[in-house]
Amino acid sequence: MPRLSSLAQNLTTETAFSVLAVARSLKAAGKEVIELEIGDSPFPSTPHAKAAGIQAIEENRTGYCPSLGLPEFRRAAASFVGREFGIKAELDHVIVASGAKPFETYFAEALLEPDDGVLIFGPQFPTYIPNLQRVGARPVIVPLRAEDRFRPRPEQVAQFLKNDHRPRAIFLNSPHNPTGGVATGEDLDAIAELLRGSDCVVLSDEPYCHMVWEGRHESLLARPGMMEHVVAAYTMSKSYSMSGWRLGFAVAHPEIIQAMGKLINTSASCSPPFVQLGALAALEEDLETRNDYMDRFRRKVERLSDGLATIEGITVERPAGTFYVFPDVRVLCNRLGLTSHGLAMFLLEGADQSFGVACLGGECFGSAGAGFLRFSCAEPDEKIDRALEFLPEALTRLDRARAYRESHPEHVLEQPYPG
Ligand SMILES: Cc1ncc(COP(=O)(O)O)c(C=O)c1O
What we know:
The chain is of the alpha/beta class and 419 residues long.
């Protein structure tokens, strides 16, 4: 047996991809499964992106390009964040990578040292902590609360800056996956005020910047003085249905951009030029399709959350943003004797022989998510409706739940959830 590094041995991964694998193997074996586990889009990539990507391949834009990204894409991205979010940026504030996720790694490697405290609002995107593990930084998790509609509280930031022995960074994600919470302009003004004069830096992870259903998207980086403190990460994955293209970009101080450029130079080398040219066309020419997709997502979210709200034992409000719905299912977990992840797996594997619904237990996003489920809206409306028809009936199948507990002891809830 080869000896693996302690990092490789201890790295936790994104459960959504494991549940997706179970769902796909059940489907391959003939089961009908509605897939609401993965945060992907049911829509095709936007049309100008596709046409420009194909054309760029035809024109042989298929070789290496600068590690920081194509200048024309960086310029387009800078003006995009200016017109959309009021961020004052130029080409040298922008760097390109394969999605938003790599910026978790680059941020950690460019800015953090071992034992640096990093404030994370829980439940949290599952790859934040593994990326801190890479550099030995220390996660400090504080809970978001349903009664705050899952908005980060500036007081939590103030306490972290005051009480932690090395408060160095914050991972801020608004609109928030998995809860759908959205930070308001006032929340961000107050957080910016706390950051000014500190040496604390923020990864502002904003993949859902066009999925705000109440108010409008606000970016921390648009606040005065924040270019010294914030790395804002954006992606083509959600707004333009381009997750498989793997393209995102970050906006930050030029010195941080150069440091991240070295990290890319020494790992990925660069992002594919034809992908950047497709993305450039999306940013500049696919606004209409994007708006149409966002309207459709909003209606899906409403359909799903309103439907879930009618089911006995489920407590849920419409999310303020994102394409996720995050219901409180503690009553059901306590009744069925299953953890929330166990409940998710029961709905997929155990509740019915020929039909299943795939979703995620809230604890896939850390212990602050326990007692909740996360549903995405990744399926067509009729499938969402079929899932909503199935759930109330499936949740009454106590015999099947007992059998599932016996065959899957790892999903048994030892202590009922409080509350
Ligand atoms: C909060 C958050 N950050 C980052 C990502 C990764 O985005 P990308 O696929 O563009 O790398 C996601 C995707 O689901 C996300 O929800």
